[in-house]
Amino acid sequence: MVAEELDERGRPVPHPAADEATTLLGFLDYQRATLAWKCRGLDRAGLQATVGTSTITLGGLLKHMALVEDDWFTRDLLDRPWPDPWPQVDWEDDPDWEWNSAADDPPERLWALWERAVERSRAAVVGAMAEGGLDVLAKRPWPDEAQPPSLRWILVHMIEEYARHNGHADLIRESVDGLTGE
Description:
This protein is an all-alpha fold. The protein has 6 helices and no strands. The chain is globular.
């Protein structure tokens, strides 16, 4: 096995000539590591900072991405119940609970929530790859779709989700302490 190459910020560099699964997983881990880099080293105030009229915070991004990880990989791909804290949330009362409640959480709790969700997602992908690879379909039925998405589709969607939010993270982090880059 070849050792994983890391860039100057500690992010795994996707191999430029890998197979499809390795490429997709490499880019997803790169995007995850980019969010971690943008949030690393900040205290509660830094994780609660906003830019302009937006209410998006880095702490909210960590909590939102924990939800997104659990939603796509645990709930949809595996058709398993959401892990805590998601089942206890009154989503009808506050559909943006993960964003709105992040300010109440200390940094350690936000990091742990996100890191555990990523670990569960990685384990779900390993199982799906062993079951049939990128063509494995999500087990949770979609009420308005004829066919659930494949693992391939979920991975591409997650790369897009992280990349879009990492753009938000860039702006927020720069406003906190001037950290810039990618």
